[in-house]
Write a structure and sequence with these properties.
heterodimer; B: alpha/beta; 2 domains; five-stranded parallel β-sheet
Chain lengths: ~300, ~425
């Protein structure tokens, strides 16, 4: 219950930020941190709790982003109606990939490669079909109003905060529920879990559908925030890497890991960009080196390190 | 006791002061600047480009053009109407990602910039112009050709160069003129394009409009970015044997495509690009002079007869490993356009500069545009030119008012 209260306190603290912070730059940095944490949590549910490492989470992100854009631009749907549809589609794609992969017992690097391949297939499809704008991409018309889910910085902060809190609650539920215990049992030893009566296929399917829905939520947010999506932005490898980096740096399999990881990465990114902005590229080198060191010396992430110190 | 209490009080106060100072230093280091709106001293201009990442080559050339202009303006005495205020450029890197571009705009806003310039790629421009609009920061788009950049009703956005539909329309018109004057030797076309916004958009427009002018578009071939082997595509081209090949791709792919065509001995009557072809790249001409000869491109180009353009070209070419590309001269000119607006606005105020840009009739540039006139943010006089590589140099062949030499069409391989 203490961790549930912590989620509440965190939500409250972030909700108070606009009242205390006037800086658009800081608000944008916080929004991007929460957004990265959402992607990280979506990865963590499958990769952290379920041990199913995915290299292609962009497939869910892109599905959500394109669903949001296509439904608004081509079909005239309202963004608030398009959002649940985008999430359902993200979940459905998760279910589809899960059914194909888990039915044939794919795991480890084979599963990772299948997700990577699906992301690439979806990128090619988005590049080909006219209804997705093909290579040109899709642009959501600029109509700033809460009715269109287009806000100022404060509104977007609350929107992404609510998405992230939902993701945190899902992670908390997984951590404390019977389903979570099954999922972690499947992660630790699939055969033993199966022998103990856990429906391995069903558990994995539920995890990938939840991950797909949350990731699609991230994609939908991206479209509303930047109003443009193209195949590379939606299904490119950088989205998948962003999701898994937040979880890995923060600590996989923990409720707070992705958020801590996203905050650390955002801070590192801002720090290197602002300190070395005049020498282009140096910031990225420093960022990369620090990342390698972090992953090398903190295999359980920042949260893991903190737990070890506490002991 | 009292001494103890006062020492404790002192320690407590000094600790909190130290903590506050450390926090403020840390925030400063992190680049969380407080809003600065200087009313005297240099005038801050934000200049954003994709200096790293996938678009770094173009981004760095764009920055170079802006750097030259800023230092020239400052050396010439700065903005006269503001008492000789120097331009203080806030250089920024969008890392080839729209969301980083937005973060940079936020940072520039808080640094107190009076205007922003750049973007380069359409996706970045779409995001950054919109972010700047929230703070009413005037924004001069340097390249970003997507038509939508100036079609969203943003009052702060101004594009000096022509957009996509203008260049494509003119490109098709000029191709038809070339072919008609030559007695219509070309009847069939194949378009080879890269898969993103630029290549696909160009291919769509060409495939839509060319049939209406009597050309048969035999095939539209799309390729991925990057593509490192064009053998199969060129074999396909040889099988179709079109009169004209229209490539719409980025530099690396363009080079590989044209070189493979030459290697396989396939020489159509013309290789004609709309935006992005090698015929507008001195780098390509220098590196592959035999392959480059005869290729054509409808692209952003300067008035090659203008002495200022010739001087700038010499200046850039005197620099080590630098080439005089459209990124360089468009950014150079955009900085001058903005400086002119600030000069006339006689103010650092964003709204005043936006008004000055909206009413701009600037004609002291070396582009073939005439005085600037912005309608919905687009400079409606902006036009491209047709270039052809002849005798190892890039020469303007159309329109006639700018032409340096006669076009050679069809090209004899």
């Amino acid at each position: 219950m203490r961790s549930l209260a912590a989620i509440g306190v965190f939500a409250l603290l972030i909700a108070l930020v606009p009242a205390m912070v006037d800086s658009g730059y800081l608000l944008n940095a916080i929004i991007m941190t929460l957004y990265a944490a959402l992607l990280g949590q979506a990865w963590n549910i499958l990769g952290g709790f379920g041990g199913l490492f995915s290299f292609g989470h962009a497939v869910f992100f892109g599905t959500g982003a394109y669903a949001m854009a296509v439904l608004q631009v081509n079909f005239g749907w309202n963004a608030w109606v398009a959002l649940p549809a985008a999430m359902v589609l993200g979940g459905a794609v998760g279910g589809f990939i899960g059914a194909l992969s888990f039915r044939y017992g794919l795991r480890g690097s084979y599963f990772a490669l299948v997700t990577l391949a699906f992301a690439e297939v979806f990128r090619v499809l988005a590049n080909t079909f006219q209804f997705t704008g093909a290579g040109v991409g899709l642009m959501v018309p600029l109509k700033e109003s809460a009715l269109n889910m287009q806000f100022g910085k404060t509104g977007f902060l609350y929107l992404i905060l609510s998405f992230l809190i939902a993701a945190q609650l899902v992670a908390w539920w997984i951590r404390h529920s019977r389903f979570g215990a099954w999922l972690q049992a499947v992660r630790d030893n699939e055969e033993s879990a199966s022998a103990l009566g856990v429906d391995v296929f069903r558990v994995k399917m539920l995890a990938i559908v939840m991950a797909g829905m949350l990731m699609a939520c991230g994609g939908a947010f991206y479209v509303q925030y930047l109003h443009y999506i193209d195949p590379h932005l939606a299904f490119g490898a950088s989205v998948s890497v962003q999701a898994l980096m937040a979880a890995i740096v923060g600590g996989i399999g923990s409720v707070w890991g992705p958020l801590v990881g996203a905050a650390a990465l955002q801070l590192l990114g801002e720090l290197t960009r602002n300190l070395m902005g005049d020498a282009p590229g140096i910031n990225l080198i420093v960022y990369g080196v620090v990342l390698v060191l972090m992953v090398n010396f903190m295999p359980r992430g920042i949260v893991g390190l903190a737990t070890r110190w506490k002991r | 006791m009292s001494a103890n209490r006062s020492r404790r009080k002192f320690l407590k106060q000094s600790t909190s002061m130290t903590a506050a100072a450390a926090a403020s230093t840390a925030l400063g280091t992190l680049g969380f600047p407080s809003i600065v709106s200087a009313q005297s001293g240099p005038i801050k201009i934000g200049i954003v480009h994709p200096v790293t990442g996938a678009l770094s080559y173009s981004g760095q050339l764009s920055r170079l053009g802006a750097q030259i202009a800023v230092s020239e303006i400052n050396e010439a005495g700065g903005i006269k109407s503001l008492g000789g205020a120097k331009i203080d450029a806030v250089w920024s890197d969008a890392q080839s990602q729209p969301q980083i571009g937005v973060a940079e705009v936020e940072k520039m806003n808080e640094a107190g910039v009076s205007a922003i310039l750049g973007g380069y790629a359409s996706a970045i421009c779409l995001a950054t112009t919109q972010a700047a609009a929230k703070y009413n920061i005037p924004y001069v788009v340097d390249v970003g050709v997507a038509d939508q950049i100036v079609e969203r009703g943003l009052k702060n956005t101004f594009r000096f160069a022509p957009g996509y539909s203008i260049v494509s329309r003119e490109g098709i018109k000029y191709l038809h003129i070339l072919n008609t004057v030559a007695g219509k030797p070309a009847k069939t076309v194949v378009i080879v394009h890269e898969e993103s916004l630029f290549g696909t958009g160009t291919a769509n427009l060409l495939a839509r409009d060319l049939p209406g002018m009597g050309y048969e578009v035999k095939e539209v071939i799309k390729h991925a970015n990057p593509t490192r082997d064009f053998s199969n595509i060129v074999l396909r081209l040889k099988a179709i044997n079109p009169d004209i090949v229209i490539p719409a791709n980025y530099y690396d792919e363009y080079v590989l495509l044209v070189r493979t065509m030459r290697q396989q001995g396939f020489s159509p009557k013309a290789i004609y690009s709309v935006l992005g072809g090698g015929a507008s790249s001195f780098k390509f001409v220098k590196q592959f002079p035999d392959v480059a000869n005869g290729i054509m491109d409808c692209n952003h180009w300067y008035n090659a007869k203008d002495k200022r353009a010739i001087a700038l070209r010499k200046k850039v070419e005197a620099m080590k490993d630098q080439f005089f590309t459209y990124e360089v001269f468009l950014n150079y000119q955009c900085v001058y356009l903005l400086a002119d607006a600030i000069e006339r606005a006689k103010s650092r105020d964003r709204a005043a500069i936006t008004d000055a840009l909206a009413n701009s009739t600037w004609d002291k540039h070396f582009m073939p545009y005439g005085p600037t006139k912005f309608v919905n943010g687009q400079n409606i006089g902006a036009m491209p030119a047709v270039l052809q590589v002849q005798k190892g140099d890039i020469r303007v062949v159309l329109p006639n008012t700018l032409a340096e030499v006669e076009p050679v069409f069809p090209w004899k391989a």
